[in-house]
Description:
Blueprint: E1 3-7, E2 10-13, E3 18-25, E4 33-39, E5 46-51, E6 58-60, E7 68-73, E8 78-83, E9 92-99, E10 108-109, E11 113-118
Parallel strand pairs: 2-11
Antiparallel strand pairs: 1-3, 3-8, 4-5, 4-9, 5-6, 7-8, 9-10, 9-11
Amino acid sequence: QVQLVESGGGLVQAGGSLRLSCAASGPPFRSYTKGWFRLAPGKERELVGVINWSGDSTSYADSVKGRFTLSRDNAKNTMFLQMNSLKPEDTAVYYCAAKGFGKSDYEYWGQGTQVTVSS
């Protein structure tokens, strides 16, 4: 059973940066596709970005493209989300998730970490 734990959230001023981490425990994580989602009050859950198992392919929501960067360190079973030029509308609880090869739905989820961007 894969367990995911996010960290790195907090309060930052608009224009600032944060780096979120998602540490995995359990079976080897390196073959899993990983993603970051966010959920803001009154809004639907949004897929922020996805990174493939090797880390050489990423995709991002239009709302964060050019500002957020996904990376992963399979040796440490950890994924990162570097968030730059943060905006108040980026305020949300951020969740990391993972799914096995060939799976359409994300199987494993972290507990979430709060990101608050003040104007």
